[in-house]
Amino acid sequence: MRVITCMVACFGLSIGVPAIANDTAKAAEKRVEKAEKIDDTIENFKKAQVAKPYFESSYGYAVFPTIGKGAVGVGGAGGKGQVYERGRHVGDSTMVQLSVGLQLGGQAYSQIVFFENKAAFDEFTREGFEFNADASAVALTLGANAAAGTKGASAAASTSKESGIAVAKYNKGMAVLTLAKGGLMYEVSLAGQKYSFKPTAERQAKKD
What we know:
This protein is α+β, with helices and mostly antiparallel strands and 208 residues long. 32% of the residues lie in helices and 30% in strands. The chain contains 4 helices and 11 strands. It is globular.
């Protein structure tokens, strides 16, 4: 009986070990794909002239490669991204928006939220942060001059007479830029966007 039990146990291990290894490999592959999407999105935003000053001087930022309608269920929008503090990845964030602010048939877009200082960063990373009704974004297009549009009332942008390029301004310590997938520029409403934040294991260990 002991011999049979041992054979059964060993057979189970022979099946389980490759399965575990395969799951681990898949998880690692997904992490690599996610990192590549994040890096590509950051590079796309850096191509826009209006975004360059923020990358140089902001305290940090949260970047979302894809925000789209239906990402969190019927009638909603959402996306997943990463949060950076002083250039370091410190956590992941998920955005949920029940009242969809997408235009042109709900086309997907990328979004980046810059934090002017630590206070703004702390505000964003607290549990349940949500943009209020007067929050707005500057929609970018990667054209010849990477110009930005300022559609919508109370858009947090102004246009430089010298360059003709819209300049994003911080609103309560945050500046939001969006980049449409496919290059079309359209209006995006931030009202109702709610964020969760999950710190990396390293950051959580430091807090504990």
